[in-house]
Design brief:
Shape: globular
Radius of gyration: 16 Å
Order of helices and strands: EEEHEHEHEHEEHHE
Number of helices: 6
Structural class: alpha/beta
Strand content: 15-25%
Mean pLDDT: 92
Length: 214
Amino acid sequence: MTSSTNDEPQVVGLLLAAGGGRRLGGRPKALLTHRGRPLVEHAVRMLREGGCATVHVVLGAAADEVRARADLTGCVLVDNPEWPEGMGSSLRVGLASLARAGAEAGARTEAGVRADAALVSLVDQPGIGAEAIARVRGAYRSPASLAAAAYDGRRGHPVLLGADRWQPVAASARGDRGARAYLAAHEGEITLVECGDVAEPYDIDTAADLGRLG
């Protein structure tokens, strides 16, 4: 995939929000309440405020309920029927959605966008806000770009995947590891963007973590 004559790269947000919250007693993470609204809305807003005008959201557990309760206007919603297999399946489905949207759009028009990169974010990390997202988004250089947020030097989310990376990342995404196998194999190619001064990379995984939600 290549850039258009527009100098501004098209970095599309890819939000993985399919998890069923097994360690939360089966409460889907997208529907956890944060600041009075479903957590998925907050995650989408952070991607948009961080510079991703287009956001693809991968849904799985309670997808119909998420659609009914959350305001996801303007998002591309993608169902992952294999969500119980783990994050890898959601990443594959999300990247396929981005590639399909680009193919359908062809040359960029008002009706469609061919993305230069995906900025992958997780719904259960509300401590990562728009400033960290904008920093990682700014690491885009070409469709071969590979970048990630770092917290005191340790790699985390969000992760920026140039379009040339999508196919091999998807091929390696298995189980609950997401892109970790691919990133480990290409560690020397990753641009780390320190975000520890503006974000906290905690996950909402257990009942004890719910206190971090507003």
